[in-house]
Write a structure and sequence with these properties.
- It is built from ten helices and eight strands.
- By secondary structure, the chain is α+β, with helices and mostly antiparallel strands.
- The strands form two sheets. It has a five-stranded antiparallel beta sheet with strand order 6-5-4-7-8, with no helix packed on it. A three-stranded mixed beta sheet has the order 1-2-3, with no helix packed on it.
- Strand 5 and strand 6 form a beta hairpin.
- It is elongated.
- About 25% of the residues are buried.
């Protein structure tokens, strides 16, 4: 029997043979009489538009995309406009001094011990009392300023370049910090304008094998622990080095503004690595927005205080050499660019962690307000702040450790040392980066809390307007005639189905 049963509460569904009520309910009240009038004791109500809400609605994805897509397009345009096309040519001929000369591979083929006097090496006199600051404690003790003690003469063979197979000698003094062994690989520098016997000299030790081995061990550890995420992290690391070596450094050498180059290159690194490692999702997009806001804050504060403190950025030999070779480079902008790039890696960690914390808190308590989620995530963020600020300070302190050692023995008060340019530069670099890191926690947490809360509000509004399925009454809710125990006043009684348990017809009296 395929009879329709009156459904109360404006239910426009139909009762079919299997008791499935199809259709949409246009009431928010309880529907009595579900149209389950068949002999089957169970039924399923199907409503359209129900199910778990997506983590982020389509509307919010459009809003986020409206902000990030123009930013990504601007970064891409900046890469195209400022792309240097390789390192620039040298403005003049190679001078053969410092880094300004070609280098080649070589190896030590012979090592003999000679008297220092025979190779015209004079040692300083023996220390008496204070002694010379530059004298090595391990040096041989000469007498009367004469050259005495075990010097060594190394025969080095060039293995690369046009002069492969050519040999020269290198004298190693007793107080030299670099020692050699037979068969050791070294790096030699070539000065074309020098006399033939002095054209080649050892400038460094070849470290290819230990460095490559360490890199392989690092990659294996990352992949074994991180698995797919570890592989993606390594790919992101390769992208970061590629942007740094192919864009940022050559563009600065070409004379482009270091700050603009650092902002564009750092943004490209941020977009590539974050989306590659964490996926193309709204959660990652919020982390990108938080990182971008923090980078802008670091750029503004860094520019302000570098100008205010009159920091030139030319405080070490490397910077002076770069400025001497390429006078067109803006050294002060190079300092600010270093602050931005140095802070970017830690910023990514902070923003991703805070965004993930907000999403997990929302999943744990879907009904929580944005303020409650924000406060809970900030309790996590405060612990993160304490650790990352200390991490950044120690990272800069470790890089400037020789400088700190020099000033620890300086005969000046603490204020004079701290405000000197070479120390003030590190202080400004550290404090500006730390301010950006601290600010990234509340900024990213607030953005993430607002996004997940706005998404929940839209989901709740959609569920109020969506159809509500009418549940089938249980057997205990039916009377002996199969009709509901209660019905609206004036409603006609439902006709029981024949052959149903407890539904036998009575003969009319």
């Amino acid at each position: 029997m395929h009879g329709q049963v009156p459904a109360y509460g404006q239910d426009h569904g139909h009762a079919h043979g299997h008791g499935h009520a199809h259709g949409q309910s246009h009431t928010h009240g309880h529907a009595q009489g579900n149209g389950h009038g068949h002999a089957h004791g169970h039924g399923h109500g199907h409503g359209h538009g129900h199910g778990p809400a997506a983590p982020v609605s389509r509307h919010l994805r459009k809003v986020i995309a409206a902000v990030l897509v123009p930013f990504a397009v601007a970064v891409l345009a900046g890469l195209v406009v400022l792309w240097p096309g390789g390192a620039p040519g040298h403005p003049h001929d190679h001078s053969g001094v410092g880094f300004d000369r070609p280098t080649f591979g070589a190896k030590v083929t012979k090592l003999v011990e000679v008297d220092c006097g025979d190779v015209n090496v004079r040692q300083p006199p023996p220390a008496s009392g204070g002694g010379s600051a530059g004298q090595s404690a391990g040096g041989a003790q000469g007498q009367g300023g004469g050259a005495h003690g075990p010097c060594r003469k190394a025969t080095v063979e060039v293995t690369e370049g046009k002069d492969a197979g050519r040999t020269f000698t290198e004298v190693v003094t007793p107080d030299a910090t670099r020692t050699y062994e037979v068969g050791q690989k070294v790096v030699v520098g070539y000065s074309e304008k020098a006399p033939r016997k002095l054209q080649y000299s050892v400038v460094d030790t070849n470290r290819d094998v230990p460095m490559v081995l360490l890199a392989v061990v690092f990659a294996l550890v990352v992949v074994l622990v991180g698995r797919l995420r570890g592989v993606l992290a390594l790919v992101g690391l390769v992208i970061s080095f590629a942007v740094l070596t192919l864009f940022i450094l050559p563009a600065i050498l070409q004379g482009s503004n270091p700050l603009v180059v650092a902002v564009i290159g750092g943004s490209a690194i941020m977009l590539a690595t974050l989306y590659l490692c964490h996926g193309l999702s709204a959660r990652t997009s919020v982390a990108v927005l938080g990182t971008l806001v923090s980078l802008l804050l670091i750029g503004v504060l860094g520019s302000l205080f570098i100008d205010w403190a009159q920091l030139t950025g030319n405080t070490d030999d490397q910077t002076g050499l770069v400025h001497g070779l390429y006078p067109g480079i803006e050294i002060q902008g190079l300092l600010l660019a270093g602050v931005l790039i140095g802070s970017l890696g830690v910023l990514d960690d902070v923003t991703v962690t805070q965004t993930s914390a907000v999403w997990e808190l929302r999943e744990a308590d879907p009904g929580a307000s944005w303020l409650k989620i924000y406060r809970s995530a900030m309790r996590i963020g405060r612990d993160h702040i304490a650790s990352v600020v200390n991490t950044l300070v120690l990272a800069y302190a470790g890089a400037a450790l020789p400088l700190l050692l020099l000033f620890s023995i300086a005969r000046s008060d603490v204020t004079m040392v701290a405000t000197s340019e070479v120390v003030a530069e590190e202080i400004v670099r550290t404090l500006v980066g730390s301010i950006g890191l601290v600010a990234s926690v509340p900024v990213t947490t607030l953005l993430a809390a607002l996004v997940v809360s706005a998404d929940r509000s839209r989901a709740a509004s959609s569920s109020m307007a969506a159809p509500t399925p009418t549940p089938a009454p249980a057997d205990g809710d039916r009377g002996g005639s199969g009709a509901p125990r209660s019905a609206p006043p004036g409603a006609p009684p439902a006709v029981p189905a024949p052959g149903r348990r407890g539904g036998r017809r009575r003969k009319p009296k």
